Amino acid sequence: MRNISLVCLTFLLASCSSVQMPEPVGLAYLSNKPIRIDVGRVEVVKQYQPSSRPPHVENELPVPPTAMIQQWAQDRLLPVGKGGSRAVVTIEDASVVEKSLKGPGGLKKVLKSNPSEEYEAKMSVKIEIFDEFGNAKGF
Prior knowledge:
This protein is α/β, with parallel strands linked by helices. It has helices at 2-15, 65-76, 107-111, and strands at 35-37, 41-46, 77-79, 86-100, 117-130, 136-138.
């Protein structure tokens, strides 16, 4: 009986070990060459307004999605043209929503680590090209 108790205790302690999270890999796109655009400048317009009301959690992230998109545009879109032409990057959606997950009940709940929520991120970006007179040339 004592051996069975020891085995059960060992199993329970092993199941309580901490979960190791993977190390962040950084901005993978930085290893690629910038996208050269024949415009004089690149502008970023933040059309999406982040929400602080549940279930939205984008304002709780270490780096909000709108900031990530803006950084991507600055890092990847390289204006190589002359004059007043411009590329306009419009952030249309950058939402992150938390959804509760129903986990198992009973002994499985105690013995197994299951996620209690999941996160759904949506990002939508439009890039438009305008000539020096403000006429749309493409998107």
